[in-house]
């Protein structure tokens, strides 16, 4: 089954890209990502899509350490309940524990391990096999953790050590300037290390009861995700396959490693069908594409997997009551 991530978390990546003067809408368009889904707190995308966003950003940004700029882009809303549970945690040790337990709310493409010694507390990042382990993404994760710790502990917070599996860039000054602690490249694992005394210090924003409420939200979300993830996975795969023009339950099932009968049964359990999801995806994408004056009706028809403009026009009229030419004129 394809691993996913919360669509809202990609806002951080896009904000980072925009900080370099690059229009993130162009990247979304190229990768065929519907921007409306990024505002849906329940939407999830294939984990590979997040790697695609970062890889595409790397082709436009010349700074090899651009991932570190994520420290300026993090906001708790990008992580939903996990972000706010983090802020209301009693201390950093509790916050890191929550992050480890509920990280699947944000991403399934990685998992985390906590290691304790009398002096230090480490959060270790492990990528799953689906991840490309892009160095600048790992740099971005470490920068995000720094931003999160500072949100709880104060701007003066600095980690004890940073360990990165990737090799050192030619210029490491950006790492030294940001983390202000030893940074070890070519390490055996990726780990964010803090002093235990800092981990146990009470956070100014500590609200244990509120944190527990967020915990309950995440527990319920994960349970719901396990039941309904199939719908988002099918929708994401339909979007990916639409320009090929021959999307079927068989082709989508093959991509998700599910046979036809199992796919139909699991969708039925969610009170939907493949045909319904295909129609919903096309309708949602059409509403976005039709507003893009750079796309002709022929191009929109192709992107939505229709064989010709006539088929697209009939579908669009069925969805909206009016033909697309009513808004666009004849292309």
Automatic annotation (TrEMBL):
The keyword Secreted does not apply. PROSITE patterns: HTH_ARAC_FAMILY_2. InterPro entries: AraC-type_N (IPR032687), Homeodomain-like_sf (IPR009057), HTH_AraC (IPR018060). Signal peptide: none annotated. The keyword Metal-binding does not apply. Residues 232-330 form the HTH araC/xylS-type domain. Keywords: DNA-binding, Transcription, Transcription regulation. GO terms for molecular function: DNA-binding transcription factor activity; transcription cis-regulatory region binding. PANTHER family: HTH-TYPE TRANSCRIPTIONAL REGULATOR GADX, HTH-TYPE TRANSCRIPTIONAL REGULATOR VQSM. This is HTH araC/xylS-type domain-containing protein. It comes from Hydrogenovibrio marinus.
């Amino acid at each position: 089954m394809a691993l996913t991530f919360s669509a809202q978390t990609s806002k951080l990546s896009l904000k980072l890209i925009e900080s370099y003067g690059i229009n993130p809408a162009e990247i979304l368009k190229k990768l065929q990502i519907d921007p409306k889904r990024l505002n849906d707190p329940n939407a999830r995308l294939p984990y590979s899509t997040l790697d695609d966003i970062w890889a595409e950003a790397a082709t436009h940004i010349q700074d090899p350490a651009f991932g570190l700029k994520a420290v300026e882009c993090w906001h708790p809303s990008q992580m939903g309940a996990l972000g706010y549970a983090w802020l209301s945690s009693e201390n950093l040790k509790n916050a890191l524990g929550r992050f480890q337990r509920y990280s699947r709310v944000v991403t399934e493409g990685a998992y985390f391990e906590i290691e304790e010694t009398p002096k230090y507390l480490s959060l270790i990042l492990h990528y799953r096999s689906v991840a490309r382990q892009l160095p600048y993404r790992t740099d971005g994760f470490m920068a995000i953790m720094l931003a999160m710790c500072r949100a709880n502990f104060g701007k003066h917070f600095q980690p004890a050590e940073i360990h990165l599996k990737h090799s050192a860039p030619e210029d490491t000054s950006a790492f030294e300037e940001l983390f202000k602690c030893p940074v070890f490249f070519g390490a055996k694992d990726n780990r964010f290390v803090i002093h235990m005394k800092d981990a146990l210090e009470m956070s100014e924003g500590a609200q244990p009861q509120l944190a527990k409420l967020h915990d309950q939200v995440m527990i319920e979300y994960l349970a719901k995700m396990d039941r309904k993830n199939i719908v988002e996975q099918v929708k994401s795969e339909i979007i990916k396959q639409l320009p090929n023009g021959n999307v079927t339950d068989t082709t989508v099932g093959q991509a998700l490693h599910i046979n036809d009968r199992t796919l139909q049964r699991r969708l039925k359990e969610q009170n939907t069908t493949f045909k319904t999801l295909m129609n919903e995806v096309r309708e949602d994408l059409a509403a976005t594409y039709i507003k893009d004056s750079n796309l002709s009706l022929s191009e929109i028809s192709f992107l939505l997997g229709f064989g010709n403009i006539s088929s697209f026009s009939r579908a669009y009229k069925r969805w909206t009551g009016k033909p697309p030419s009513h808004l666009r004129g004849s292309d």
